[in-house]
Design a protein that fits this description.
alpha+beta; FAD/NAD(P)-binding domain; 3 domains; 5-stranded antiparallel β-sheet; 7 helices; binds flavin-adenine dinucleotide
């Protein structure tokens, strides 16, 4: 948004990649290149060490380099504000967010927590996580509200499905990245495909790249990352359904999909990516 308003923009990131919660390094580097082509300067592996200026920020020191700026936008992540909960003796979990059961009830009877302040189990690792997404907050709110009102409802967990749009490029992910799987000690096999969003010859066909992450032992689909021009949200949603239904990669490769030149490629790219994983597993 700042670039589109004509500002010179520099992004400073201390990790080796941007979008670490959504993408693996290989996919993140593609997004980085797209952003650089649009004129953004992206500095990775540089930690903001100091904010300069007295009455107003005039720049930062990052990786021993001074970057002068008229505007400093701080986006260092989100942490649950649990002060009120702690003061009320409500138990926090290992993520430092509020611990709840599947009814979204805290350790204190009839006190419920939902949204960014509450931790939730990851559907694949079953470990507590902080998804901090609006979609999850609303679903948790419905569950907490139903239970607080005397009904019965359970919140099963999250895959962390998320989408974003950077200039005209859509980016989405669901489930675990290879990196997140490694941290959970899950061995993976991946399949990555470059395809088009419509028939190759059809005007307006946009490039799309899909990476599927599969658990090596069970062959279950556990994650996906997509970079493309259109329909990323619906593809991420479809893959999310497949993960939630514990689909194996061979079941996904045989899935029934639709085709018409102005709307899709003959072979849905998700299916082609699944076939690549299958070949690696054979
Ligand atoms: C810039 C940005 C973009 C986002 N984009 C997306 C997106 O595209 N998709 C998506 O799924 N998620 C997105 N999110 C995340 C999403 O907005 C949050 O996950 C969601 O709003 C969390 O809902 P919540 O009710 O837990 O908290 P909030 O929406 O933060 O609501 C909490 C409310 O409680 C109030 N409050 C705090 N303390 C007290 C108090 N002591 N007494 C009374 N009231 C209090 C606050 O003022 C606030 O209004 C985005 C977040 C940001 C910051």
């Amino acid at each position: 948004a700042l670039k589109e308003r004509g500002l010179k923009v520099t992004v400073v990131e201390m990790l080796p990649q941007i979008l670490p919660a959504m993408l693996d390094l290989d996919m993140a580097n593609i997004v980085k290149e797209i952003l650089e082509q649009k004129g953004l300067s992206i500095l990775t592996e540089k930690r903001v060490e100091e904010i300069l200026g007295e009455d107003k920020a005039t720049g930062v020191i990052a990786g021993e380099e001074q970057l002068n700026a008229d505007i400093l936008l701080s986006a260092f992540g989100v942490r649950a504000n649990t002060k009120l909960a702690s003061e009320a003796n409500i138990e926090l979990g290992e993520t430092r967010a509020i611990k709840t059961n599947a009814r979204m009830e805290t350790n204190i009877k009839d006190i419920f927590a939902a949204g960014d302040c509450a931790e939730v189990p990851n559907l694949i690792t079953h470990k507590p996580s902080c998804s901090q997404l609006g979609t999850i907050a609303v679903r948790q709110g419905k569950v907490a509200g139903t239970n607080a009102g005397g009904g019965y409802s359970l919140f099963q967990g999250v895959l962390g499905s998320a989408v974003t749009k950077l200039f005209d490029t859509e980016v989405g992910s669901t489930g675990l990245t290879v990196n997140a799987a490694k941290k959970a000690r899950i061995e993976t096999v991946t399949g990555t495909i470059n395809s088009k969003t419509r028939a190759d010859y059809y005007p307006g066909a946009k490039p799309i790249k899909i990476k599927l992450v599969v658990e090596k032992e069970s062959h279950h689909l556990i994650g996906a990352q997509i970079i493309g021009g259109e329909e990323v949200t619906q593809r991420i949603n479809a893959i999310s359904f497949a993960i939630q239904k514990h689909m194996t990669i061979s079941e996904l490769a045989k899935a029934d999909t639709a085709y018409a030149p102005p709307l899709s490629e003959t072979w849905e790219p998700i299916i082609l990516a699944a076939e690549i994983v299958l070949r690696k597993l054979q």
